[in-house]
From TrEMBL:
ZnF (CR-type) residues: 134-218
A molecular function (GO) term: mRNA binding
The protein's name in its UniProt record: DNAJ homologue 2, ARABIDOPSIS THALIANA DNAJ HOMOLOGUE 2
GO biological process annotation, one example: protein folding
Organism superkingdom: Eukaryota
Species this protein is from: Hibiscus trionum
HAMAP family attached to this UniProt entry: DnaJ
Signal peptide start and end residues: none
Annotated ranges, domain CR-type: 134-218
Lineage: Eukaryota, Viridiplantae, Streptophyta, Embryophyta, Tracheophyta
Length: 416
């Protein structure tokens, strides 16, 4: 079954973009493209969109099959996939196929593609005091840099040979026999050229880098930890990772790792601190001192007549963490109060408390009704331990039931 012919559309625009006639030869197309591409290249201040159109027009018209489809049916037919589709290659790659880079000197921002080297990430342990006050740390690191003697060529002459072990691909394929009629094929970097695809003769090796193209270097970096920075925040040194030929150097990244603090817990811009009060302090008032992260002594005291309940919180404004890049603004300090009750009281203490505390609620039951109630005995219990013990006993009973003969049949009968 044949599809219907595509609808005809514009089939002259590409010729107009290149400034050639419809019967232009391949040489005419090349000359027209080179002249217009140099004039409109973005590195020379040209229009990026015009540069892109030139590349697309040349890619289509320089391909005989695409040109035939274009001449007969126009742009829309190519967009629908006829002739292999419209031109979609990177315009800078097409330009590089003519010039091998930038013809303007100094290199092109896009003419020559370079891979990017990997970033090197280091954890940096800091205290909560460091994040509150800010600090700086000088760290000595070792990295590889391009050999200055051979400019990263690895050889005295600047020449290299294609690796015979991998035929210049940088990769080798090994086959592993797993069993009868079973093999595993694995790809790995060539060990002869270390994945570079090229080798250097022993006589021609650079005496400084021994053909490695890079040499080790020690460098000291000063890492500035600003006030208010967070755990996990990154401090980046662009272009300070290992150098390699034809590679954009990666970054060195320090990731802050906050050490636990014995007193304070941080949540965003706020600080949390635990404090235990005696029952007397909770009922009758208290005052105590908190030593802050910068060494200041903060006096914390209750208001007259204030009663602090167990598991309650109080806040102190502007005594939390400084805000990152806004160090004069600070969060809050939250104090979590725990009230410590006495284990027991003497009869005299009970009477004294009853004399000053609100009266106990009276029972709504009569003496006769109370006499009919059953008395119970309470005892102290660790509820977490109690629940864990019960869960373990239930698990053991379940496993024991599974081990009994006929256990499966009993379960099946119960479900019928």
């Amino acid at each position: 079954m044949f599809g219907r012919a595509p609808k005809k559309s514009n089939n002259t625009r590409y010729y107009e973009i290149l400034g050639v006639s419809k019967n232009a030869s391949q040489d005419d197309l090349k000359k027209a493209y080179k002249k217009a591409a140099i004039k409109n290249h973005p590195d020379k201040g040209g229009d990026p969109e015009k540069f892109k159109e030139l590349a697309q027009a040349y890619e289509v018209l320089s391909d005989p099959e695409k040109r035939e489809v274009y001449d007969q049916y126009g742009e829309d037919a190519l967009k629908e996939g006829m002739g292999g589709g419209a031109g979609a290659h990177d315009p800078f790659d097409i330009f590089s196929s003519f010039f091998g880079g930038s013809p303007f000197g100094g290199g092109s921002s896009r003419g020559r593609r370079q891979r990017r080297g990997e970033d090197v990430v280091h954890p940096l342990k800091v205290s909560l005091e460091d994040l509150y006050l800010g600090t700086s740390k000088k760290l000595s690191l070792s990295r590889n840099v391009i050999c200055s003697k051979c400019n990263g060529k690895g050889s005295k002459s600047g020449a290299s040979m294609q690796c015979s072990g991998c035929q210049g691909s940088g990769m080798k394929v090994s086959i592993r026999h797993l069993g009868p009629s079973m093999i595993q094929q694995m790809q790995h970097p060539c060990n002869e050229c270390k994945g570079t695809g090229e080798t250097i003769s022993d006589k021609d090796r650079c005496p400084q880098c021994k053909g490695e193209k890079v040499v080790p270097e020690k460098k000291v970096l000063e890492v500035v930890v600003e006030k208010g920075m967070q755990n996990g925040q990154k401090i980046t040194f662009p272009g300070e990772a290992d150098e390699a030929p034809d590679t954009v150097t990666g970054d060195i990244v320090f990731v802050l790792q906050q050490k636990d603090h014995p007193k304070f817990k941080r949540k965003g811009e706020d600080l949390f601190v635990e404090h235990t009060l005696s029952l007397t302090e909770a009922l009758c008032g208290f005052q105590f001192v908190i030593t802050h992260l910068d060494g200041r002594q903060l006096l914390i005291k209750s208001n007259p007549g204030e009663v602090v309940k167990p598991d309650s919180f109080k806040a102190v404004n502007d005594e939390g963490m400084p805000l990152y890049q806004k160090p004069f603004m600070k969060g809050k300090m939250y104090i979590h109060f725990t009230v410590e009750f006495p284990d027991s009281l003497s009869p005299d203490q009970v009477k004294a408390l009853e004399a000053v505390l609100p009266p106990k609620p009276t029972s709504q039951l009569s003496d006769m009704e109370l006499d009919e109630c059953e008395e119970t005995t309470m005892y102290d219990v660790n509820i977490e331990e109690e629940l864990r013990r019960k869960q373990q006993a239930a698990q053991e009973a379940y496993e024991e039931d599974d081990d009994m003969p006929g256990g499966a049949q009993r379960v099946q009968c119960a479900q019928q």
